[in-house]
Amino acid sequence: MKHPRPAPTVGADPDRLLRIAMVGTRGVPARYGGFETAIEEVGRRLVDRGHQVVVYCRTAGTSTTPPAGRYLGMELVHRPALRSRSLETLSHTALSVGHLLQNRTDVAVVFNAANAPFLPLFRAARIPVATHVDGLEWKRAKWGPMGRRYYRTAEWLAVKQSDALIADAIGIADYYRERFDVGTDIISYGAPKTAGISSSRLSELGLTANDYHLVVARFEPENHVDMIVQGFVQSGSRLPLIVVGSAPYSDEYTRRVHAAADDRIRFLGGVWDQELLDQLYAHARIYWHGHSVGGTNPSLLRAIGAGTATNAYDVNFNREVLGSAGRYFGTAADVAARVENDESADLNLVARRAAARSRAAAYDWDDVTDRYEDLARRLARGSRKYDETKVRS
After folding, report:
1. Which of 10, 80, 116, 167 fits 62 for a cystine, CB–CB 3.0-4.6 Å?
2. What are φ and ψ of residue 56, in 5° steps?
3. What is the pTM of this model?
4. Considering only CA atoms, which of 20, 23, 19, 18 is closest in space to residue 97?
5. Quick one: 19-190+364-380 is in which CATH superfamily?
């Protein structure tokens, strides 16, 4: 939920303009996930406020490095990455940090605790650094025992070497407090407000408003796409389930999801056309959200920002966002029962959509930017004090 706007830090210069680096993601334009969306939305607003924002962007392969450019006022620095699930992020971050140490900024924000091994370099160079720790990555099935140990160690290193930690959900903040006895800056994402937009593009897919269900997710076990598909197959649904998403390193899981489907399930793969994607969200009868370990999820915020009735996997992160506006499931049988209820004449879509919009109003990108700006100024003046405001619905 939206947190009260932080009061200015005592002694901070409220007018100081900073040079801020964003490191550790695929960069912008945002085409992948929550980190990239946050960088685009926050970065453009920080630029509008007069700050300089440097975003490190990932390029495929290792042979070429595109020249630096600009996007929405942000300075882009491109660095390559190894095409490997275990090394892609680290290889890109290593090259990004090498460039940053030679082209210093006032503050750096490192996204993903997996990048924690590079934090001592920031501290040695006396560049204040905050780490956005993301969700509980070590719980993901794609990582074996060694990968899980790495992520648990990386969490510990992020705690020890960061000047501040950013959590995007109360549940993540609770985890770091209980496991490491540390506070965090709780900064959630914003929800794009797209309720009421046109449905003109749906005809390209042979769809009409309110006559389909929607899933948007990377194909990973923790996102429970297979459970949702299985539940639909078990149900008496008369409407199609539209599945948007894929995954570069999950071939086996993708095959399992497709094998579970029947002719009511339509797989679109990745949809990068944002206008079309907005219309898919806004005009779905129900949005199904199966994510379980990633904290506050931008796909969920996008759905409620579109005013779409939402059913979500029953975990604390999703309940934190949806509260009583959502309906919840935990098994394929739950999905089947929900489907049939959601297609009944008794479903009050108007009320559910209004409830979704009400929840979305609490997630505002300007408020998020205020928090990043306040944190950057605190770090620039040498303060490690965090701003942990707990608001429960």
Report:
1. 80
2. -90, 125
3. 0.85
4. 23
5. Glycogen Phosphorylase B; (3.40.50.2000)
